[in-house]
Predict the 3D structure of the following.
Amino acid sequence: MIVILKSDVGENSPEYRQVFDFLANKPNVKTRVHQEIGAQQTLTEIYLIGDTASLDKAEIEALPGVERVVRVSEEYRILGRHKDDPRPAGFEYNGVKFGQDNLNVFAGLCAVDNPQHVEMMLKALRDNGQVCTRMGAYKPRTNPYSFQGHGKNCLPWVFELAGKYGIKVIAMEITHDSHLDEVREALEKTGKPTGVMLQIGTRNTQNFELLKIVGRQRELPVLLKRGFGITLEESLNAAEYLASEGNRNVVFGLRGMKTNMGDPHRNFVDFAHVPVVKRLTRMPVCIDPSHSVGTRDCAPDGILDVMHVTAQGVVAGANMILVDFHPVPPKALVDGPQALTIDELPYFLEDVAIAREAYEKRRAATDRFLKKR
Ligand code: PEP
Ligand code: MN
């Protein structure tokens, strides 16, 4: 159960205390407070855990400080989509909106290699009106002898170059809590020329201690990738770990499932789950066509599989696209074979816009149909 307080009810007000006094008298009910501090107002939500079935919703709603009470289903208390749930979905970070109704493209390098390639990519993004990118500094690799990423050494120049080209958000994977400190330190030292969305990769979806540490900070939003070999429910619970620790600015990423049945793609593309995640939770949904498909193979129509699956995800309502590009794919240190090239960027964006328009037309048709019914 979630008790949502009126926006003007602050911690020191009598109404606030009255709510807590009331709840303190209920046996086996624990409270956890979450506050969203905005420029205009602070929103307070009280999560009730334990024997909430015996609580009377109307009785709590009658307390003067209470705006609304939502009975949540057991699953995904914070990030879940519950009946009569007025809480807003999505968030804004560094001037960029993330929600279930819009779309952001994060095209960029799987792995940062050198300043020249990074700058070529960032310049192309700026020239094509883009404000987000992906740049990997910490790469989890199957083979211990493969390039592991430049780590913290590249962060200052990557952030400065991103700022130079007007990039607002970089999706960047971290695999250890020390990486979180390094990213925050580098942002601080460079004067925050850009922003970072922390990425939890598919190999760490159930690294609960990492999730807790990342969830305890609220400065940087998080892109949580679906685990490649676990159920959707398990991955959504992993997202809830982040929120339960305090950070609900979470985007959920689909990146394909590991199974030979997906062959010849690198992973079995799971973008049919875009609407499912939107139905079960209030998280924006990201698709990663590059790590799903893993090649530059193309259909007889000349369209790359990577672009076909991107369009499929976007037509189904995806809210973010994480996609590998590289100025010279054969020279990429990680995942060159699946990278799109810089001259393909405007064409890729045009194809995304076509698919997005199709999604919007589908929504309008659905609205018309439901209204008439
Ligand atoms: C990546 O996005 O670079 C990556 C390694 O993805 P995943 O965790 O989905 O394999
Ligand atoms: Mn990769």
About this structure: The two ends are 34 Å apart (CA to CA).
